[in-house]
């Protein structure tokens, strides 16, 4: 992906030009070095909820296999992958990792479009929200990736609803 792409273009990346599939569940993935946070929407799709945190498995790719299973299990019509963009709007190594991950996920999920979405500050927001709720330390590490995925997906769903 061109590092100078706009947020709108980033949201459509990896979808192969496929149009919005309409109603149905969406899954969102927040990819990190060690963990992958996963959130899912309701079928409407209006509300994002935490689903699970997967351990990254860079050698066997079992996390990607599990995500493909979740896509089938939840009858997902669209996948959103968080794209870490710097505050200056640039793409660095973390964005390259997210793009590679979205490509690998796209290869496993067939006709389900995979889209990238700007995830600036979502982990910071999720961490602050969890701290405000008294969740700290190891308990926070276990769920912060899910909470970040919820933040990414909810923002994406809200933007989608505004554009309809």
TrEMBL record:
<keyword id="KW-0690">Ribosome biogenesis</keyword>
<keyword id="KW-0540">Nuclease</keyword>
<dbReference type="GO" id="GO:0005829">
    <property type="term" value="C:cytosol"/>
</dbReference>
<dbReference type="InterPro" id="IPR005227">
    <property type="entry name" value="YqgF"/>
</dbReference>
<dbReference type="InterPro" id="IPR006641">
    <property type="entry name" value="YqgF/RNaseH-like_dom"/>
</dbReference>
<dbReference type="GO" id="GO:0004518">
    <property type="term" value="F:nuclease activity"/>
</dbReference>
<feature type="region of interest" description="Disordered">
    <location>
        <begin position="1"/>
        <end position="26"/>
    </location>
</feature>
<keyword id="KW-0963">Cytoplasm</keyword>
<protein>
    <recommendedName>
        <fullName>Putative pre-16S rRNA nuclease</fullName>
        <ecNumber>3.1.-.-</ecNumber>
    </recommendedName>
</protein>
<dbReference type="Pfam" id="PF03652">
    <property type="entry name" value="RuvX"/>
</dbReference>
<feature type="domain" description="YqgF/RNase H-like">
    <location>
        <begin position="24"/>
        <end position="126"/>
    </location>
</feature>
<dbReference type="GO" id="GO:0000967">
    <property type="term" value="P:rRNA 5'-end processing"/>
</dbReference>
<keyword id="KW-0378">Hydrolase</keyword>
<dbReference type="InterPro" id="IPR012337">
    <property type="entry name" value="RNaseH-like_sf"/>
</dbReference>
<dbReference type="InterPro" id="IPR037027">
    <property type="entry name" value="YqgF/RNaseH-like_dom_sf"/>
</dbReference>
<dbReference type="GO" id="GO:0016788">
    <property type="term" value="F:hydrolase activity, acting on ester bonds"/>
</dbReference>
<comment type="similarity">
    <text>Belongs to the YqgF HJR family.</text>
</comment>
<comment type="function">
    <text>Could be a nuclease involved in processing of the 5'-end of pre-16S rRNA.</text>
</comment>
